[in-house]
Design a protein that fits this description.
globular, about 75% helix, mainly alpha, Four Helix Bundle (Hemerythrin (Met), subunit A), about 0% strand
Length: about 140
Amino acid sequence: MPLMEWSDQLSVGVGQFDREHRVMVDMINELFDAVQAGRGREALGLVLDHLLDYTKTHMIKEEQILEKHGYPDLAAHRLEHKAVGRQILEIRQRYEAGATGPMCMEVLTLMRKWLIEHIQGTDKQYQSFLNARGLH
């Protein structure tokens, strides 16, 4: 059973962003499955690398599109992106330094919470703005 399931509540009404958000949900579930199977620590490094790369790529694309269309709250949006990026990087650095403990659950909790709060809060705010400009 997945930790997080995609639902219409997570949709921001822009297909490209929804597809990218779904990939992040899949990464969370991949790590959760590994934890359930007793392979959490082993899978964590790969998932963290993928999360760092993918979230950075997604955030850059999202910000570029918002900037292109003159989104008025872009600065605040960027700040949220930078904050979660720093958190993931900090966890990755601790992992590389050999940290042990509940890092898998820390990553799962952080990403699940961030995706839900960021998508349903911050990202939902741009939905009508971008939809009005032809992005669906």
